[in-house]
Amino acid sequence: MTRNLLAIYLNDHLAGSAAGLELARRARGSNQATPLGDFLDRLATEIAEDRETLIEAMNRLDVRRDPIKVVAAWSGEKVGRLKLNGQLTGYSPLSRVIELEGLHLGITGKLELWRTLQRTSEGRLGGVDLDALIKRAEAQRRGLAPHRRSAIEEAFGP
Length: 158
Known about the structure:
This protein has 158 residues and is mainly α. Helices cover 78% and strands 0% of the residues. It has helices spanning 2-30, 35-60, 67-80, 93-120, 130-156. Helix 1 (2-30) packs antiparallel against helix 2 (35-60) and helix 1 (2-30) packs parallel to helix 3. The longest helix has 29 residues, at 2-30.
């Protein structure tokens, strides 16, 4: 039962990483040539690297990937683009707030994933530096925070 639960948990995070990567890329495209766009460019690269590390960890733990979950999450991110944002067309300040909040939630979830693996599976994950992954997720949250604050102030006022 424990092995089955771990497989479900890791596949849920793998699916979340697919959605998070698409969200970071979309937000990056809407904020090009800005400090936020530059941050999102780095973040998207790191999310892709973290996703590959998760796949490596799943392989080491002999957990099969569930492609249906990944496709569903990827599709869900695309459908999420249809959310009303206060404008009939285009990008609005609310779009930025929602995207950055989604990224914050995803990074926080990833941070907890790495902490969970550190507590439960570290001995079986030789070569996966969970301490470094935890530090990177914490740095990603810190880096995102001022952009979130700015987006909130732009959308709703100080």
